[in-house]
Amino acid sequence: MKFLHLLFALFLPLAGVWADGLSKLKIGSHELIVELAVSDHEQETGLMNRTSLGSDQGMLFIFDQPREASFWMHNTSIPLDLAYLDEQGEILEILPLIPFEEKPVKSKSARVAYALEVNRDWFSSRGLKAGTKVQGLPAKP
Q1: What is the pTM of this model?
Q2: What is the distance between the alpha carbons of residues 47 and 34, in angstroms, rounded to a whole number?
Q3: Which CATH number covers residue 115?
Q4: Is 11 inside a domain boundary?
Q5: What is the dihedral sign for C-alpha 42, 46, 47, 48?
Q6: How far is it, in rounded angstroms, from Cα 68 to Cα 55?
Q7: Of 46, 61, 83, 107, which has the maximum CB count within 10 A?
Q8: Is residue 12 included in any domain, yes or no?
């Protein structure tokens, strides 16, 4: 049994997913460490009630099926940008999220398979825009 745990510990990081609910993504030449939001509870809570987010950190929401998506900033004080991604990891659009704004920010597309929240201007300050491919996305549930 210890052997299986060792294999799991060794090969999971190679897949880009870590046992503690984190994953490393590559977007262009930039790396980003993201918390994974997979369960309903994780997705409903998101980054609520946090006071900061590391400069190269974010949260990746993983949807079981592509859909039209909608986000709001209830109890979220950190200025964020939101990227909607399709199943292949292509950024469909990047939208600003305003702290505490409860008006939904809806996707234009019904092909959203992932949503990625990062600090405001993280994408623009690195020259990343719609059409850019995100690598290292974890497998969908």
Answers
A1: 0.86
A2: 12
A3: 2.60.120.1140
A4: no
A5: negative
A6: 28
A7: 83
A8: no
CB 60 within 8 A of CB 46: no
Looking at residue 135, its amino acid is Q
Measure the CA–CA gap between 103 and 40, rounded to whole angstroms. 20
The count of domains in the chain is 1
Label residue 3 exposed, middle or buried (CB < 10 Å: 0-12, 13-18, 19+): exposed
Residue 81 lies in a domain: yes
C-beta of residue 72 within 8 angstroms of C-beta of residue 115? no
Q: What is the pLDDT of residues 63-99, one digit of tens each?
A: 999 999 999 999 999 999 999 999 999 999 999 999 9
4 lies in some domain: no
Neighbours of 137 (CB within 10 A): 22
The tens digit of pLDDT for each residue in 16-41 reads 454 568 999 999 999 999 999 999 99
Query: Domain of 30?
Result: 20-135
CA-to-CA distance for 126 and 58, rounded, in angstroms? 15
